[in-house]
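Researcher: Structure prediction, please.
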Amino acid sequence: MSQVQGRRGSRTRTTLVSLIVTATALAACGSSGSSNAKSSTSSRPSSAATGPVVKTLGTGVDANSIKLGIALVDFSTIAAATDLTRTKQEQEAAYNAFIDDINQHGGINGRKIVPVYKYYSPLGGAAVGIMVVCTALTEDQNVFAVVGTFVDFSGDAQTCVAKREKRILITLYLTGATIDKSPAGMIVTPGDIPERAASILVQLLQRQHTLDGKTVAVMGDVTRKTVVTDTIVPALQKAGVKLGTTALLNIGTTGDFTAAMAQLNGVIERWKGEHVNAVFLSGDLASNKPFVETVKQQLPDALLLADTADVLSQAQQVQQSGVKPNPYEGILTAGGLTAQEEDQSAPWKYCAGIYKAQTGRDAPDAEHTIKNAAGKIDDAHGAISDACSMISMFQNIMLKLGQYPNNENWVSTVNSYGNIATRGLGPYASIHTGKYTADDNWRLQEYDPTLGDTGEWKPVTPLQNISG
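Model: Predicted structure follows.
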């Protein structure tokens, strides 16, 4: 599912948000751098504080502890609808490993982290939904910050935490629009956002002359309208690319694709008349299997592009089901480390080393698929890398912040941080004023179904540090 940098920096594995998309669809149908693993103590950063702005303690902080909310998906609620899973046991084991390691080495500036776990169902209408988790962690538990796989396509839940409840949020699967709804610096991610990923993808494609002579149509869900109209289309226009009709589909997350599929079939007829031979997919909803399969059935020679490497989850599930040709074969995106590169990276060795020291178990790598007794893909690797990247990011910022954890000092520290490519966040990562996404690892990559167990990303260009 994820990569060390948050799923982040590497962007080479299946991801939680794709699982949610798949699960909702099937349900409706009835169906980052440190040194190395053995040097976790010596690689521990010093608490070089930037100096307090406000000498008070924030909510959830006392002289000895910092209360940290951890929001996670309850995969048992979508067990019948997805082939991938993370158990509660392995998710909590992952977070506890990194939290316990910090606490055993003096905590954060002398304060120990006290985790509060809350699980939610990503299926619409569930009794324990993500908005309930926001209230439970902030109003009931009074946590200082929230971390975890906190996914809400509307952005309402993230805004609930960071704006309404005024709590720090470190999570994944964000958009720039969601971050902008809350005070600057209150939401940060060890990963990336689609606006930035889309812009970088266009840059990389332009350098390779991939789109020369192509007519490109952009397709996304209506929730991605700002990404499509304000980022992708202008970037393609600036690059001098000929454009076809833009399609914004009413997909939603209920899993009823009837209306969206009718829209897509209609727009494909227009694309045929416009001689569209490349389709730029924006977001996990538009890159879901039913839509990609329809596009490739009717436009078999069209080049597919995606502004999210999360399409790997869909591609791998198609490959596992034995569908040939795989409609995702050759799809291009902006990515980071390959699975093999990640497994050999200093950040992953750091994360895996701490996990082994705390649990006594080897951390599953990124290169191999593990199936449980029920035949589902066990994504313990993703749980570990997500936990490592987010807890490491929290620790880095808090150590630099100093003795007075509160919102004002947090924001000041984030805005002045700079290079944060240490321990679980690397090899390239930075945050500062106006840039709250740490991931700076980028390359052009394509899906090759012949790699690994179920296909992997294949590098097209060298890895680059793109921080601007």
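Model: The first helix runs from residue 16 to 28.
Researcher: Thanks, that helps.
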